[in-house]
Design brief:
Number of helices: 14
Helix content: 25-40%
Shape: globular
CATH architecture of the largest domain: Alpha-Beta Complex
Number of strands: 11
Number of domains: 2
Distance between the termini: 20 Å
Structural class: alpha+beta
Radius of gyration: 20 Å
CATH topology of the largest domain: tRNA-splicing ligase RtcB
Length: 379
């Protein structure tokens, strides 16, 4: 999200903002909302409608849908393909942040690399931004667990040799493939609704802490993009236009200018690409390119990527006052537990600037702006 505020506008309130966001958005392993639990009927609607369900229930505005991939809902979702255990895990987790590398980050535009692209996204130096990174929570995790068992059996059934059991799969046209697609779409739509609700509570929190209305705050959605997902898309393969299933694991879409699936107001510049770094450095806004569409099936990276396991990170962080280190850099952090902050130290990640420069120089995404954190809530 971008805002109508500058870094100076919130510098005196950032600690209060971070605390209020932490209270308003449940985060951490197994976190759940105490004020909201989905019943079975509404849960089925979330699976089918995604972000539209959230908006119909007062969480955001219809205009938000224009800036969400697939307009907030992937077709083909079948609630009947989702297990009771997965449904149960999701009932009280809609509107929650989760754990690990999931976060809400309040930052500002520290540098603009392309003025024309930044103007199209209505970004300018010093402007306050908010990034939300979370997905389908325990529901999606359970869908994954359920279908790993199905896919292992399917691989043996269809004679697929697996170099690694984690690559278990089935033909997309098989019964197993179709069932997984239907369940995955439900999880993706749950994630769209989840982020939309968190977007609403971010806006609500800013309004309360800053004492401003929506017109002054202008917390508008730039873009909501998927990762860890499969999509049916049209691409050129061996000189022929084909409808194929593109899997993006740790990757996001980076469609070029003039692609029909890009929001109309971004059609001339390409799809916005969001590449977060770590809580102590920076994140980037980029746009997709024609080269990405021709060379990487319209894809780019999702983030910096880890260089340490969580266990290694905790060992490196032992004895350090990580929260104080971040505050000394002007970054206020709140987390559900000290372990998460230790696991998520900057040392545990590649330098996102180096990663972004690689994809920019390779021509599969173009740099627009650098965002530097001021406050972060982690799971």
């Amino acid at each position: 999200m971008r805002s109508g505020l500058s870094r100076k506008d919130i510098s005196g309130s950032i600690k209060e903002l971070v605390g209020a966001l932490f209270r308003n958005i449940p985060s951490g392993v197994g976190s759940r909302r105490k004020d909201f639990t989905l019943n079975r009927e509404e849960g089925r609607k979330v699976f089918k409608k995604g972000a539209r369900w959230a908006i119909e229930n007062g969480y955001g505005f219809a205009v938000d849908l224009e800036h969400i991939e697939e307009k907030g809902a992937i077709e083909g979702a079948d609630p009947g393909a989702v297990s009771e255990r997965a449904v149960e895990r999701g009932r009280s987790q809609l509107g929650t942040l989760g754990s690990g590398n999931h976060f809400v980050e309040v930052g500002y535009v520290a540098e603009v690399y392309d003025g024309k692209l930044a103007d199209a996204l209505r970004l300018n130096e010093g402007q306050v931004t908010v990034i939300v990174h979370t997905g389908s929570r325990g529901l999606g995790h359970q869908v994954c667990d359920d279908y790993i068992k199905v896919m292992l059996q399917a691989a043996a059934k269809y004679g697929i040799e697996l170099p690694d059991r984690q690559l278990c799969c089935a033909p997309i046209g098989s019964d197993e493939g179709k069932r997984y697609w239907a369940a995955m779409a439900c999880a993706a739509n749950f994630a769209f609704a989840n982020r939309q609700m968190i977007t609403h509570w971010v806006r609500e929190t800013f309004e309360r802490v800053m004492g401003m209305g929506p017109k002054r705050l202008q917390l508008n959605l730039i873009y909501d993009v998927c990762h860890n997902i499969a999509k049916f898309e049209d691409h050129e393969v061996n000189g022929h236009r084909r409808r194929i299933c593109v899997h993006r694991k740790g990757a996001t879409r980076a469609f070029p200018p003039h692609h029909a699936e890009i929001p109309e107001d971004y059609r001339d510049i390409g799809q916005p690409v969001l590449i977060p770094g770590d809580m102590g450095r920076c994140s980037y806004v980029m746009v997709g390119t024609e080269k990405a569409f021709s060379e990487t099936f319209g894809s780019t990276c999702h983030g910096a990527g880890r260089v340490m396991s969580r266990h290694q990170a905790k060992r490196v962080a032992k004895g350090r006052a990580i929260v104080r280190e971040l505050e000394d850099k002007g970054i206020f952090v709140r987390s559900a537990g000290k372990a998460t902050i230790a696991e998520e130290i900057s040392d545990a990640y590649k330098d996102v600037t180096e990663v972004v420069n690689v994809v920019h120089n390779a021509g599969i995404s173009r740099k627009v702006a650098k965002l530097v954190p001021m406050g972060v809530i982690k799971g």
